[in-house]
Amino acid sequence: MNRPVEEMKQPYARRWWALLVLCLSLLIIVMANTALTVAAPDMTKDLGLSSSDLQWVIDGYTVPYAALMLLLGAIGDKYSRRGALVLGLVVFGAGSVAGSLVDSSGGVIAARAVMGFGAAMIMPATLSLLAATFPRAERAKAIVLWTATAGLAIAAGPLVAGALLEDHGWASTFLINVPIAAIAIVGALLLVPPSKAGHSNRIDYVGGLLSVIWTGALVYMIIQGPHFGWDAKAISAAVVAGVGLVAFVAWELRHPHPILNVRRFLDRRFSGSNLAVALFFLAVFGAFYYLTQHLQFVLGYNPLETGVRMLPLAGAVFVGSALTGYLTPRIGMKITVSAGMVAGTVALALLTRVDASSSYGDFVAPLIILGLAIGLALSPCTDAIMGAFPESELGVGGAVNDTSLELGGSLGIAILGSVLASSYSSKLADAAAASGAKLPDGTLDTAQDSVGAGYAVAQGIGDKAHEVAGQAAKATSPEQAAQLKGQAEQLAQGAGKMADAVGSAFSDSVAHTSLVGAVILGVGTVLVAVLLPRKSASVGDADADTAAAVPGDAGVREREPQR
Questions:
Q1: Distance of alpha carbon 309 from its chain centroid, rounded?
Q2: From the CB of residue 484, how many other CB atoms can be counted at a distance below 10 Å?
Q3: 3-state secondary structure of 231
Q4: By C-alpha distance, which of 487, 500, 489 is closest to 434?
Q5: From residue 67, how far is each of 55, 88, 295, 408, 432 by CA, in Å?
Q6: Which of 51, 61, 447, 487 could staple 457 via S-S, CB 3.0–4.6 A?
Q7: Distances (CA, A) of 91 to 60, 87, 119, 304
Q8: What is the pLDDT of residues 360-388, one digit of tens each?
Q9: Handedness of CA 235, 239, 240, 245 (dihedral sign)
Q10: Where are the alpha helices (DSSP H) in 6-61?
Q11: 8 A C-beta contact, residue 138 and residue 147
Q12: Which residues contact 514 (CB under 8 A, 6 or more apart)?
């Protein structure tokens, strides 16, 4: 497909097929994170990863992904949005191949960083190409499907990874990206029309570099501080992020053609939508982080079974997305988004009832409500964010939306993950003391590291009990046999009590962390409801409002064709 979309006088005939390609590209970059949650135990065992190594295997993808999106989105706008998509898919596929071949923690982290670099090109390109290809009257519907795909990917990642891990190693979760990326590349070249900005302004590389510095430092601080302690690295990152943000805003306010006109945040619809996206993914990614652990470790499901049990969330996302397409034009964006955020708060509040006796049935209603909330809240926000940008800056608009999403997700895992870890450590110590279990020296400290480590300690004590029982069977005297048998029984009881203490402590920690998440999202719901304008404007009105709030864009909008 060689004809640029900007030269088409009528809407592109195969635009819905092009949307399928864009959604497929989005699917694999979101699944790259969620699939890793179920592949992590096998990877940890095979590579001997420490908790620090595993954290950076996960977040080595996040830092370049979040930091580079704004600059790469602007470069895609100027030169080629489709070119950015295809190049991003190539880089992402190459990183996936490398990740499947390495045999060290450093190698996996480096491969994940390469994948993050590719994802930073792909993510804003999917939204900018969607907005450029679809006429304004259909853009909201297309964004609904794009958002539903993101929600599907959250749940599909564990399912696909679980199915692969049934018969293959963790490397298969990397390799599955390669054929999908290849199909997306071919589909992009055949079905997605080329697109780029209609102006020749030079890219604001200084502003772009400052955005990389402050965003990257902020994400690094979010990861480093809560998980590894507020040491010199975390504090230095916080300082760099703060100074970099101030420098970025100051530069953008003075530059005649900034990479991002920060005055847009004066528009309540735009700033409220970005806040809603960030807060919502804070809650969703944080909850997903501990729910998958609870299903695997406490309830004992294998990776495939865990993925299957996340499907109610994926189905509910599609239902919620369909509802928002019907409701938003009738009752307005403010009510739809606020209702979605209230529903998300309710879902987290329901998880506060989790305890040691909870079964999977207790998770079904929260998963369904959370999926409905994702569908209701995110599509209108994404549509509002993209509608605030002129046609020449659609890549930047997509990058702003995706950066809000990624920062929110990183904060969710950092904040709620930190609350979970602290609560679990404290509650396990209390539960172990109350059980009266006699534990070998140092085992409690090891068990407090994570729920997986806790069950591993219990398993180790049980294995020791079997070993001592075997020695009792081979004892040469009745007295020695009786003594060894007593030790074996004591160890077996200790193993059982330890396993019960771990399950109880983690379940109580899930309830406590869910309460914290519900409070954060509840407060955020009030802030978003205050920020969003009372009457939802049409797309054209929203553009006019934003142009008025951002004087520098007014002339650009007048010259842009209204497709």
A1: 19
A2: 19
A3: coil
A4: 500
A5: 18, 15, 32, 13, 43
A6: 447
A7: 15, 6, 8, 28
A8: 999 999 999 998 998 888 889 988 998 88
A9: positive
A10: 15-34, 36-47, 51-59
A11: no
A12: 287, 348, 349, 351, 352, 354
Q: Are 327 and 336 in contact (CB under 8 A)?
A: yes
The secondary structure of residue 351, as a DSSP letter, is G
- pTM, rounded to two decimals: 0.83
pLDDT attached to residue 537 = 45
Whether residue 233 has pLDDT greater than 80: yes
As a dihedral over the C-alpha atoms of residue 234, residue 237, residue 239, residue 244, rounded to 10 degrees, the angle is -160
Type of residue at 403: T
Q: Is residue 213's pLDDT more than 50?
A: yes
Tens digit of pLDDT for each residue in 310-348? 888 888 888 888 888 888 888 888 999 999 999 999 999
Sort 76 into a burial class: Cβ within 10 Å, 0-12 / 13-18 / 19+: buried
User: What are the chain's domains?
Assistant: 14-198 (1.20.1250.20), 204-258 (no CATH), 427-435+442-508 (no CATH)
Q: Are 341 and 276 contacting, i.e. CB atoms less than 8 angstroms apart?
A: yes
Question: Looking at residue 562, what is its pLDDT?
Answer: 40
Using an 8 Å Cβ cutoff, are 35 and 173 in contact? yes
Any residues with CB less than 8 A from the CB of 442 and at least 6 apart, and which?
none
Cα separation, 251 vs 259, in Å, equals 10
Residue 510, classified by CB atoms within 10 Å of its CB into exposed (0-12), middle (13-18) or buried (19+), is buried
Residue 209's CB: how many other CB atoms inside 10 A? 15
Tokens matching residue 268: 């309540």
Instruction: Give the Cα separation of 412 and 435 in Å (integer).
Output: 33
Instruction: Please give the structure tokens belonging to residue 535.
Output: 């009457």
Q: Which two tokens stand for residue 420?
A: 């979970």
User: Which tokens belong to 176?
Assistant: 């599955």
Q: Which of 69, 61, 25 has its CA nearest to residue 40?
A: 61
Structure tokens at 48: 């001997």
Q: DSSP for 429-459?
A: HHHHHHHT----TTHHHHHTT-HHHHHHHHH
As a whole number of angstroms, the distance between CA 520 and CA 92 comes to: 34
